[in-house]
Design goal:
Layout (H helix, E strand, L loop, with lengths): L1 H15 L6 E6 L2 E5 L8 E7 L7 E2 L10 E3 L13 E8 L2 E2 L3 E2 L1 E2 L8 E7 L2 E7 L3 H6 L3 E9 L9 E4 L3 E3 L7 E10 L2 E3 L6 E4 L7 H28 L1 H8 L14 H9 L15 H5 L1
Parallel strand pairs: 1-9
Antiparallel strand pairs: 1-2, 2-5, 3-4, 3-6, 6-7, 6-8, 10-11, 11-14, 12-13, 12-15, 15-16, 15-17
Bound molecules: 2-acetamido-2-deoxy-beta-D-glucopyranose (3 copies).
The site of one 2-acetamido-2-deoxy-beta-D-glucopyranose has 3 residues, from loops.
Length: about 290
């Protein structure tokens, strides 16, 4: 009894839930295709359009309650002289609808911008072509909205830059893939289909890291060679260092004349190549003889 009640509840829950939104929705030469989100036999799809000067969404008459996963939307192009329509698709099942998904265009068209991407270290340049009819007719009132974000993020209506011509987006994370979508705007209002996302890898900047590494390795090698040499002279040849540090001074000829014995003692303790202390070598016995 309890199991049957639970089963009915689950079925009712499944029937009353809104269907999942279609995925991978895009237009290629005015043929709109999408991937059904679930293998549901009774899910249908409806395409809506919004023209250049209108804020309302209307049904594309040939694409209402479609059970297939494509629809020819060529007829909507005639709704505006520049072909500036926006399109969206939603799934419906048992009178419930999914969230609508905005349609993007795989290629530039009469109202979809042509663009190419040029990644640089930490930045991305979006080259835009102003050869579409909207730019010709409306000049600087028609701009481009460049949406960008990391791969996998939802791009539309997130971060964007408005640009008349090509634009460079700075301060991007190096080694990360970024995606770009571009849409025409007219007096700040989105018009026409946005392009589908294009993604590129932002390269790492090499110009900084390489010389630093070379400098560090060079410094290490110099230190490794220099430390034993300095240590050798400090421990074994302190007299050499004293010699180098002594200011040049000539003794007068007769300086040691009255002290011949002393003179002998000094000459007998001439520095040798041995590693020893010169001072301790002068013993009291030697001085007394
Ligand atoms: C568009 O089609 C849907 C589904 O058939 C319908 O419910 C809706 O009323 C239609 N909208 C217009 C404006 O005709
Ligand atoms: C879409 O329909 C138009 C006519 O309405 C036709 O010329 C075109 O070939 C069709 N496109 C496809 C891909 O079937
Ligand atoms: C606009 O420029 C793109 C490339 O920059 C080119 O592929 C396209 O054919 C051009 N379109 C027109 C209408 O000139």
């Amino acid at each position: 009894m309890l199991f049957r009640v639970l089963f009915i509840l689950v079925v009712v829950q499944a029937l009353s839930a809104s269907p999942p939104a279609p995925q991978n929705v895009h237009v290629d030469n005015w043929l709109l295709t999408w991937t059904p989100a679930a293998e549901e036999g009774d899910t249908t799809y409806t395409v809506e359009y919004s023209s250049f000067d209108s804020f309302v969404w209307k049904n594309v008459t040939s694409c209402v309650h479609k059970s297939s996963n494509s629809c020819n939307v060529t007829s909507t192009k005639a709704e505006d002289e520049h072909g500036c329509v926006r399109l969206r698709v939603q799934a419906e099942r048992h009178g419930l609808t999914s969230t609508p998904v905005e349609v993007c265009s795989r290629h530039g068209d009469s109202c979809t911008p042509y663009f190419s991407l040029m990644p640089g270290p930490g930045s991305l340049t979006v080259h835009l072509s102003r050869n579409h009819s909207l730019a010709r007719d409306y000049a600087d009132h028609a701009k481009h909205r460049v949406y960008y974000g990391k791969e996998g993020e939802s791009l539309l209506y997130a971060k964007y830059e408005d640009a008349l011509a090509s634009v460079t987006i700075p301060e991007l994370q190096e080694g990360q893939r970024y995606c770009v979508q571009v849409q025409n705007i007219y007096f700040g209002k989105c018009v026409g289909l946005p392009t589908c996302p294009q993604c590129v890898l932002i390269p790492e900047s090499k110009k900084d890291s390489k010389p630093t590494v070379i400098l560090a390795v060079g410094l290490m090698m110099v230190l490794v060679l220099l430390i034993p040499v300095i240590a050798y002279f400090l421990i074994c040849k302190p007299e050499r260092i004293k010699e180098w540090l002594r200011p040049p001074y000539e003794l007068p000829e007769d300086f040691l004349e009255p002290f011949p014995d002393h003179h002998l003692a000094i000459s007998s303790s001439s520095p040798t190549e041995e590693c020893w202390n010169v001072i301790t070598s002068i013993s009291p016995q030697e001085l007394s003889t």
